Amino acid sequence: AADKIRLIPQDFFAELCEQIIQHLNHKIPGINTAELCQRIQTSGVDINIGDLAKIANTLSFLFSTAARNNLSTEELVTTLGSGVSTLPKHAVQVIRHVWNEQGKAIAVSEDARNMATVGQFVDMKWKLGVAMSSDTCRSLKYPYVTVTLTVADPSGQITDKSFEMTIPQFKNFFRQFKEMASVLETV
C-alpha cells in the first residue's frame, strides 16, 4: 500500500483520510472510492480503483485501531515510522494532521463496533422498462423494473447492486415496503 500511496497527491490523500474519519464517526455512510479514483486519474495519476480501495481499507484499519488503543498523535506517528514499509513523508504529515484534528472523536463503543459489521443503505433508484424482443423471441413485450441499491459495506466502500423484477415481484416488494413503513409508524 505504501508504494501506491506515494502516487496519490497530498490533497487527494487528505480528502481520503478525512472521509474515512467521517465514516468511522458515522457522519457519512461510506467512502465513494470510484468517484475519488476517477478524480485522481483525471489529475494524471495512474491508479486503479482496487488499489485505492486497499489503501482506504488500510487507513480505516489504522484509524480504528489507533482509536481503540487511544493513541495520541505522537504515538500514532511513531508507530507508523517503525513500520516495515515506511510511508511517504506527505502521507505521514496528512495522517498526523487529520488524527490530531479529528481522530479523538471516533466513537469506538462496543455497540458502534457491532453495528459496523453490517452494511448501510445509502440510496435506491428504479426504472421501468419493457423488453420488446430478443434473438430467440420475436415478441416479448413484457414490463420489468430495474432497481439499483447503493450500499456502503462495513469498511465504508460504496457500491451499487442492481437487480430486475417482474411486475408481480415488484408488487410484492412494494407491499413489503408498505408493511415496513406501517410498522415503523407504530414505533
Automatic annotation (TrEMBL):
It comes from the Eukaryota. PROSITE patterns: COMM. One of its GO terms (molecular function) is NF-kappaB binding. Residues 120-187 form the COMM domain. Belongs to the COMM domain-containing protein 6 family. Scaffold protein in the commander complex that is essential for endosomal recycling of transmembrane cargos; the commander complex is composed of the CCC subcomplex and the retriever subcomplex. May modulate activity of cullin-RING E3 ubiquitin ligase (CRL) complexes. Down-regulates activation of NF-kappa-B. Inhibits TNF-induced NFKB1 activation. This is COMM domain-containing protein 6. It comes from Polioptila caerulea (Blue-grey gnatcatcher). The lineage of its organism: Eukaryota, Metazoa, Chordata, Craniata, Vertebrata.
